[in-house]
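Posting this for the archive.
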Amino acid sequence: MVDIEKALLDPTAVFGHPKDVLSHPELSREQKIEILRRWAYDAKELEVADEENMHHETLNEDILDEILQALSELGAGLMNN
């Protein structure tokens, strides 16, 4: 069973890849969208921090594109279903 609260707080702690969110059978469409949107927010924040030389972790530069693709597959965007 997936820890939804943990996934909402830190999607990367629960899922290795955005496609893992898409394929998870226990999550509703709305939960998947919310998790992916939060992941996108985190990825954008990391990009900004990286640009400002404030980020110390390795950033997967393609992750935001993968998150956006997953949201698209769900018929959602960053802000609206």
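The chain has a mean pLDDT of 85. Residues 17 and 63 are 8 Å apart (CA to CA).
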